Amino acid sequence: MDIKVLGPGCKKCGTLAEAANKAVEELAIDAKVEKIDDMVKILSYGVMSTPALVINEKVVVSGKVPSVSEIKELIQKA
Amino acid sequence: MIKSIQITNRKQLLLVLLSLPIWYILYVNLQNISDFFIDTVFGMKAGTHLTETIRFFIFEVPKVLLLLVLIIFGVGIVRSYFSPEKTRKALAGKSTFLGNVMAALLGVVTPFCSCSAIPLFLGFVEAGVPLGVTFSFLIAAPMVNEIALIMLVGLFGWQTAIIYTLTGLLIAIFSGWLIGVLKLEKYVQDWVFEVKTGQTDQDATKIPFSDRIKSGIDSVKEIVGKIWLYIVIGVAIGAGAHGYVPEDFMASLMGKSAWYSVPLSIVIGIPMYSNAAGIIPIVSVLIEKGASLGTALAFMMSVIGLSLPEVIILKKVLKMPLILAFVGIVAAGILCVGFIFNFIY
């Protein structure tokens, strides 16, 4: 599974990356959380409000920080 | 998993319905409650400087916080109907002026965080939103918002809040319009026009109302959690100054008779950066101590609307002449507002 956190490096983006890492850890799945801070790349996902969460190249959340349990649910649905 | 989330949502709805009457009872009786604490529980002597300072503080902090919670909750729900993606779609290819008016209004309700200013700018430009219209949005979004509104209502009354909102919108509309008329597109960094944005289909799913309640609660947690301390400190400074700083302390520097006070306040305000929650209690002290309304409004708009960190962020996508035009035009707008209000009042 491929998980990406999009954000130019504001505080919320860090919080989201932490939450995503925690969710992966709690689910004990084989997934890598990657942080993307390149603006052009972020835009290529069609995201205009950061931070955003991308699972398997699909944007699932943008513009807010979901809770760890919400992220877990999103991962299980993907 | 999904089922458990649905149950928490229902619980939250119940919680909200129960909280509303409690909120109302608290708000209506706030003066009595704070008087009860001061006069009966603490047994303080009425009329002394210290007592009245503490009375002001004990009344004002919960009042502003109560207003804040209710309005941010409401705005959180309203905002869940808007997104930058939808706003972009609404503004694409709009004519100038009408587009500027729409952009300024949408700037008030679209969820916006200054850290997303760049992706938003790129997304707008790429979708064919005119440059001036984009600027109307970017000027209105941080300047006119629910936090500024609540704080102004709480500390100055609704008249000042309306004046601030209307003049803030006018500045956003006319500054953006002027930037559009001047045709400054050539001063946008070249790479901006080569950006291709992808498509997302996340707006296609319908959101149930219980989720919108949740987003209201979430925004209360997030925003109130972030700014309550500013409010407590701001009101404490206000309460302290209320009793102890001489009435006309600021009159010579920021009073009406000093014509240079408006431009001076703007220049001082530009390098300063603060959100509305931090600056408004300070502005209320300035006014109480003799600063005139126009000067204080100009100072506040300059601090919130124009800031050095923002300019540095914008440098990534804009060339210097456009940044200078942006700062200059907005500053000129604020200058007019300051002079007009000093003239009227």
Description:
The complex is a heterodimer of chains A (about 80) and B (about 350). Helix content of chain A is about 40%, strand content about 25%. With about 80 residues, chain A is α+β, with helices and mostly antiparallel strands. In chain A, strands 2-1-3-4 form a four-stranded mixed beta sheet. Chain A is globular, with a radius of gyration of 11 Å. Chain B is flat, with a radius of gyration of 22 Å. Chain B has a domain of about 210 residues. Classes of the chains: A alpha+beta (about 80), B mainly alpha (about 350). Chains A and B meet through helix 1, helix 2, strand 4 and helix 3 of A and helix 4 and helix 6 of B.
Brief rundown of the structure:
Chain A has 78 residues and is α+β, with helices and mostly antiparallel strands.
List the helices and strands and how they pair.
The complex is a heterodimer of chains A (about 80) and B (about 350).
Chain A: E1 2-6, H1 11-27, E2 32-36, H2 39-44, E3 52-55, E4 58-62, H3 68-77
Parallel strand pairs in A: 1-2
Antiparallel strand pairs in A: 1-3, 3-4
Helix pairs in contact in A: 1-3
Chain B: H1 2-28, H2 30-41, H3 49-79, H4 84-91, H5 98-109, H6 117-126, H7 131-143, H8 146-156, H9 158-181, H10 209-244, H11 251-254, H12 261-269, H13 276-288, H14 293-305, H15 308-314, H16 320-344
